[in-house]
Amino acid sequence: MPMFDIPKEIDEKKDINDFMRKIQEETKPEKCILCGKEQTSFCNSHSVPKMVLKNIAKAGKLYHANKLIEIPVIDKEKGISNSGTFHFICRDCDSKLFQEYENVDALQEIPTEKMLAEIALKDILLMLSKRNQEKRIYQKGKQKGILQNVEVMEEIQQLDNKDYMDELNLYKDVLYKNSCNNFKIIMWKKIPCVVPIATQTLVALPKDTEGIEINNIYDMRPEVRMQNIHTGVFPMNDYSIVYAFYHRRDRLYRRLHHQMNCMSLEKKLELINYWIFKYTENYYISPEIQIVIDKDDKLKELSRENNGMPNLGYVTTMDFLFHKDEIKPSEVTNLLREMYAVKK
Ligand SMILES: [Zn+2]
What we know:
Blueprint: H1 13-26, E1 45-46, H2 50-53, E2 61-63, H3 66-69, E3 77-79, E4 85-86, H4 91-97, H5 104-107, H6 113-144, H7 150-177, E5 183-191, E6 197-203, E7 229-235, E8 240-247, H8 254-261, H9 265-279, E9 283-285, H10 290-294, H11 297-305, H12 317-321
Antiparallel strand pairs: 1-4, 2-3, 5-8, 6-7, 6-9, 7-8
Bound molecules: zinc ion.
C-alpha cells in the first residue's frame, strides 16, 4: 500500500518531478555532513557508482524500482545521472571518500577494510538523505491535510536518523583511523557474466533463512537499534560483483552468516536477488530484460510489498489486513542467473 495518496493537484508527471525537485532543494543541509564545511551547492552523488550503472544502461537509460511498483505518475525509467543520486555531501568529500572501492581493479580482489567502510558510509548517506526528504514530504502532506498518522512516521524517522548518525560516525571512524577487523563478509563474489541489475544498499533484515527473527522491525523502543546488512550487485564490463557484509557489532547476523556459509552459490544469489526486490528500492535494471520482468507478476508483487516504506520492510496496517501468503525466494525471477545476463 502506498503510504499516502498522490495529491490530486499533482496528477501529472511533470508536477511530481517539480515537487520532488523542490523537496530536494528545500532539504539540502547547510553544511556537508562529512567535513562540516558550509556549502551552497552539493555534489550529485551516485549511490550505485556511475561506472557500474553505465554497464547495463540502454541508450543511457535505466529502469527504476517503479518499473515494477507501477505508481502511475512516477517515472519508471531515468538517465544514469538521475539514478540513485543524493545531494548531501560536498564535491570535495565525494571525490575523495569513495575512491578505494570505486575502482575496477580493486573490486575484483578481496575487499579491504577501507572499501567496505566506504560502501557502508555511502549506504548510510543515502538513507539519511532519503529520510531528510521524507520528513519534508510529511510536513507538506500534513499542511495540505493529505497525510494521516504523520506523528507516527515522524517518530520512526527520528529513531532512524539517530541510529543512522551513530552508524555514520562508526564508518567514518574506520576510514579516518584506519582500524581493522571491523566487518564480517558473508560473500564477495565475482561472477563471470554481466547481470542486468545494479544495486548498493543497506537492509535491516527481519528474519534469517529459517524464519528466525533477526530484527524486530515493529519494535519502536528508542533503545532498540536496527542492525543492517550491506548488500550490492555491481555489473562491470564483463563480469559482476555480488556482495553482502555487516559490521562486527551487528551480531544478530551471525546465524544468517553461518546459514549462508553452508549454501550453494546459486542459493546465495537467489536470496540476495530476493532481498533486493523485497526490502529495497535502490536498484536499477537494464531495459534489455524488459520482457522478463514484465511477465513476472510475483516479482512485481514482491516489489510492491515495500512500496511506501522503503528499505526497512515495515508493514502497514493494510498489509496486516490483507495478508497473503509470503512470496518465497525461489518463486521470483533470479536476475543474477547467467541466463539473464546482458549480452555484450
Ligand atoms: Zn565535505
